[in-house]
Amino acid sequence: MAVEGRSREEDHSEDISKYAAKAGSYDALSAHQISRFFNRHKFTTKADCSRMAAEILKSPVSPTQIQGGHSYTVAADSGQAFNVVQFRSSKLDVELVEHAKQSYGDFVPNCKYLGMLGDVHVYVWDLVPGPAFCRVRRQFLNLAMQQRLRQTVLDFARFSASAWIKNPTIRQSSASVEEYSRTLDQISHGLPDRIRWKLDEVRQGLPLIFRPEYPKAVQHDDFLENNFHVNEATGHITGVVDWADAIFAPFGVSLGGLETILGVQTSNRWYFHPHHVELMAHFWDTFYGEIGQISAQDRRSIEVARLFGLFRTYGFEEGDARIVYLEALCML
User: Fold this and answer.
1) Beta bridge partners of 250
2) DSSP string for residues in 72-112
3) Which tens digits make up the pLDDT trace of 76-113?
4) Is residue 65 part of a domain?
5) Whole domain around residue 76: which residue ranges?
6) How many domains does one find in the chain?
7) Of the candidates 109, 126, 143, which is a domain's last residue?
8) What separation in angstroms does the CA of 299 have from each of 76, 161, 201, 212, 292?
9) Each residue's pLDDT tens digit, 145-155
10) What angle, 0 to 180 degrees and rounded to 10, lies between the N-to-C axes of helices 133-141 and 23-40?
């Protein structure tokens, strides 16, 4: 897989941690997101939210370190509460979150809807321990931290496999071969032949993931570095948050979260961890060890779904960035 003349077998001594954003960058982002949230909501103030959350948590509260683009989340200052309170611009599909809980178990925090405060929706979530991965990413990508990163990769494999193993039939997926094919058609415009060839291969495989016997699953669909937490000392994933964009779709379309763990995306490059090939092998060994024996057709289906998800996520980036990302992520 080539990226600007370099293969996926990167220099095994290169330290890519320097390309990851520092924790302070996320502090600034969170402050901006909080300001924007309350600028949008004229009938609910930050003080209103603090008063309500303090009553719920029985403690003064402060914003959590990581915020969302359409929500405001606070935790107890006392450190004794086991919950956080979240105020959202739009209502969550709590039923879908509940099904995610059934599929992924303790990786998903419990959620309870409390109604509205002014013009925002109020939820209580379990407090997920440990920092968001984005805040320790620079440490984990350092070569000296490879064992912790390996544990994160193994936990992501177990997380991903859970949706195959515990797969309750909950609803019909609105997705279809035709819809996915149209998405790939949109992405294909302007792609170099070498990438379009891979995209066409994925398009030809789409009927595999819409077979009646192929599982559909609740999937996070936004598995970014700020949306899961880790134990800083061990690398274990302690929970996955922000399920607002969860989807019910053919299994595997969100497996691209592995690339988020193993690399850093800049404006014009994707930098992989020097040992990412080995770490990816650990992922797949653990993943298939968890789900057990499956057919060659199902294995091919999982790969088609994974590649479709990567094309859909990065194929709409602007300018040359999309070519760089797709080259790095999809060209096996």
Assistant:
1) 216
2) EEEEETTS--SEEEEEESS---HHHHHHHHHHHGGGS--EE
3) 998 788 999 999 999 999 989 999 999 999 999 999 99
4) yes
5) 24-126
6) 2
7) 126
8) 45, 13, 15, 16, 11
9) 899 999 999 99
10) 160
For residues 99 and 173, membership in a common domain is answered with no
End-to-end CA distance of the chain: 5
pTM of the model as a whole: 0.92
* Alpha-carbon dihedral angle through residues 304, 306, 308, 309, given to the nearest 10 degrees: 160
Within 13 Å and on the Cβ side, how many CA atoms surround 90? 8
Q: How far apart are CA 182 and CA 227, in angstroms?
A: 29
For the segment 286-315, what is each residue's pLDDT rounded down to a tens digit? 999 999 999 999 999 999 999 999 999 999
- Considering just the CA atoms, what is the radius of gyration of the chain in Å? 20
Give pLDDT tens digits for 137-189. Answer: 999 999 888 999 999 999 999 999 999 998 755 556 678 999 999 999 999 99
Q: Which residues pair with 76 in a beta bridge?
A: 61
Instruction: Tell me how crowded residue 151 is: count the other CB atoms within 10 A of its CB.
Output: 18
